[in-house]
Amino acid sequence: MSGTELGLTLLALARAAIGERLEVPVRPGAVDTHHARLREPGATFVTLTHEGRLRGCIGSLDAQRPLAVDVRANAQAAAFRDPRFAPLSAAEFALTTVEVSLLTPPEPIACVDEPGLLAQLRPGTDGLILHCEGCRATFLPQVWDSLPEPQRFVGELKRKAGLPPDFWHENLRVARYEVVKWAETS
Prior knowledge:
four-stranded antiparallel sheet; 30% helix; globular
């Protein structure tokens, strides 16, 4: 299955999963939903936008379930369980764009201070996972589009984790990952 075929399949699976919950029929198109790659473990994020604005984003950081199962579960979670938004309605669904990001396995970044971390970042490429003493958050690489400065990117990620933007501690752990993403076109 080529990357394009995989992307079309994941987008179709995500849209169909949301449509099922809303009891709105969705035509999946000509996609191979029985391909072996979909049975392999995969970690995805599903991002929903409505009229160009974020409408939901939920995902998995670790590949612990089959790719098809992961994308369907994350699509439904993004549509109906993102705590920042009310559940998606059937009326909104028709005007909502689906994006699926397939994550690479996270790789730890060795750093003893924030300048050391900032020096290793690859803006536009790295998604980051930050965790320290029970606080954890991630930003997909797409977030670089709205937070292009590394120091601000990291500061906002800390804030998302419930930490002050200037926080640093020897127990702070950071990992990076990359994504391949596909989005529906209008």
